[in-house]
Amino acid sequence: MKHYNFDEIIDRKGxxxxxxxxxxxxxxxxxxxxxxxxxxxDFATPDFIVEALKKRCEHPVFGYTFDDDEYYESIxxxxxxxxxxxxxxxxxxxxxxIVKGIGLxxxxxxxxxxxxxxxxxxxxxxxxxxxxxxxxxxYNPLKLxxxxxxxxxxxxxxxxxxxxxxxxxxxxxxxxxxxxxxEALVKLAQICSAHGILVISDEIHAEMTYPQFxxxxxxxxxxxxxxxxxxxxxxxxxxxxxxxxxxxxxxxxSRIREKFYSFLEAGELNAGTIFAFTATKAAYTYxxxxxxxxxxxxxxxxxxxxxxxxxxxxxxxxxRPQASFLxxxxxxxxxxxxxxxxxLFEDKAGLALNDGTMFGKEGEGFMRxxxxxxxxxxxxxxxxxxKAIG
Length: 390
What we know:
Blueprint: H1 18-21, H2 23-26, E1 34-35, H3 47-57, H4 69-83, E2 92-94, H5 98-109, E3 115-118, H6 125-132, E4 136-139, E5 143-145, E6 148-150, H7 153-159, E7 164-170, H8 182-194, E8 198-202, H9 223-226, E9 229-233, E10 248-250, H10 254-266, H11 274-286, H12 288-312, E11 317-319, E12 326-330, H13 338-348, E13 351-352, E14 354-355, E15 366-370, H14 375-389
Parallel strand pairs: 1-13, 3-4, 3-7, 7-8, 8-9
Antiparallel strand pairs: 2-10, 5-6, 9-10, 11-12, 12-15, 14-15
């Protein structure tokens, strides 16, 4: 068994990467911050993916390509292995990115003025995409009860009217890292099915669910869920290949599938690239061991941050994730305004995190920390934060 080195520090500057080379634009000229924001990892993309891409590059022609049997079989085998989800080939389609997929679904299934429901605090494109496309976003905020995020079904049913056409679900949840229990997803499906609301389930963090939890693809929890949903997945977060657009959709319901996939086909938006197909096949064929080791390292990073803060900065608390390499930091005990909190992290500590209010007003008092990096970098960042707080 090969041992992968996640402690290795890799210089990513000069590769046109958003996380490092985009700092200056995103943080008002502050290009020397420690970047702990954009949701990709600083770990090397696994060697079996790199080798597969190199091998394909040995052939000197990069002409038109198509999604072959191996591509579909790799996805189907992986979904069965990870979630015991037995899928049909016809359910699956390449899409040009999950945020783009959300935009395409909004265009396909709704009209300007229709309402789209989101559950903040949540990944900000859920709000931005429908809003910029002329849809009305309505909010079903998560409840934070006894330190645990839960869906507020009573509030959801109270806001639904005839104009509500879609709900965008983060499963697992970003930024909270919540792996939703099956019962919650079943209830959500019941409500949405009863009101004719299509659920778009973003499951890009699913593969990084921690071993003690179980991810339930939304479409698997009930017949109602399968009949009212579109699921988006990708190997991009898990295997650190976000720059290779490798997302795909799964639609079990034939009526929804025909409408959406016909929409995609009309503009060849379902046409993937050589490198997307190559990387996906390699990730899902050879990736199990690497994923297990990477996930173990990330979990230890969670523990490291949690223990450090408890010992040195007890005013900041970790909302312990159940999936992903993103950590939601509860900074409310610092009793700072949001602008003061951001200033503390950026100007005093020299750190680039995501402002919690990016995910909605419910994120006030929070910051999102990306721990998908060598532990030495996290230690450096936390030491700097400790010094800044004094």
